[in-house]
Amino acid sequence: MSDTAPRASGATLPIPVTVLTGFLGAGKTTLLNRLLKHPALRDTAVLINEFGEIGLDHLLVERLDGDTVLLNAGCLCCTVRGDLVRALRDLAARIAKGHVIRRVVVETTGLADPAPILQTLMSDPLVLSRYRLDGVVTLVDAANGMATLDAQPEAVKQAAVADRLVLTKTDLTAPEQVAVLSARLRGLNPGAPLLEARQGEIAPDTLLDCGLYDATRKHPDVRRWLDAEAWQAQEHPHHHHHHDPNRHDSRIHAFCLTFDAPLPWDGLATWLEVLTMTRGESVLRVKGLLNLEGEDRPVAIHGVQHLFHPPVKLERWPEGDDRRSRLVFILRDLDRATVERGLRAFAESARQQAVIAAGDGQPPGTG
């Protein structure tokens, strides 16, 4: 499977990009200001999106100070997407001239739908050649989180696609209220670690280097999110019955499929293509660690709606891993049975074709 090899990048590795999101008032700017004072965030460029006057003829991109860029012409998930790409290209040009930038943080407006942002980071050729999506960090206001999730579909999507969920304002919220919100977030996105920031303080290493798709380092979080299904089975055996059907997140659910036997890449790739072409709007996120037929190393895949990142062959399996394939899905208005049935059908078809090819190369009755 030659297309799973990491892309060559010469002496310069792709720069990690962290997307910091969360609904209005969740505390993104406060947390970001604290993080930027930490040595781990040295040489970090920050792209900040805020609402401002939307020009009819052009969008404004204004450098505020150092490596901070204000994208102030509207919501980052729509009108400013072009400016996001241009800002990243500008940073890449500066790096090429010797300017040191080791990380990029994109802080979105609280109203942003994160999926188009991720698609932008995963689709522009120049961006892909210089940057890699390191992870999505979503902040949730503990005091107002339940009401926000009930009323705002953007907040639900922000939580559903996160690699890290961070509760803020827990010191101002009753413990039982925090517990109820935590349970809801774990049900919405069981694969994301649920962390806590007090007054904007949190250790940077818990948020950065999510790392699953960085083939140059180990992947300590692989098993945590890939074992999401086990958590659901133990804690919520009838999980799908516990949500109020009037809540927005009753339409969004997460699950993990596991496969003991190696999967055929041809069948899996074909199925993913069909899935994204026909139901891409329902595929909020897919993450997977795969044991493929003919491969002795794990292969990571990562997709958002209609777009899939090129598969990446990792250096090794996590220590002690049982080497099963795991696929985590975060879907909206698409049931698990349909997805699982389609995957198994395409995999079985690919295996049958391989058997035929290994024989006389002709299907029965066609010779």
UniProtKB/TrEMBL annotation:
Single GO molecular function: hydrolase activity
InterPro entries in UniProt: CobW-likC_sf, CobW-like_C, CobW/HypB/UreG_nucleotide-bd, P-loop_NTPase, Zinc-reg_GTPase_activator
Pfam families: cobW, CobW_C
GO cellular component: cytoplasm
Catalytic reaction annotation: GTP + H2O = GDP + phosphate + H(+)
Domain CobW C-terminal, first and last residues per copy: 252-347
Family annotation (SUPFAM superfamilies): Hypothetical protein YjiA, C-terminal domain, P-loop containing nucleoside triphosphate hydrolases
Keywords from the UniProt entry: Chaperone, Hydrolase, Nucleotide-binding
Organism superkingdom: Bacteria
Function description: Zinc chaperone that directly transfers zinc cofactor to target proteins, thereby activating them. Zinc is transferred from the CXCC motif in the GTPase domain to the zinc binding site in target proteins in a process requiring GTP hydrolysis.
Protein family (similarity comment): Belongs to the SIMIBI class G3E GTPase family. ZNG1 subfamily.
Name assigned to this protein: GTP-binding protein
Organism of provenance: Roseicella aquatilis
Phylogenetic lineage: Bacteria, Pseudomonadati, Pseudomonadota, Alphaproteobacteria, Acetobacterales
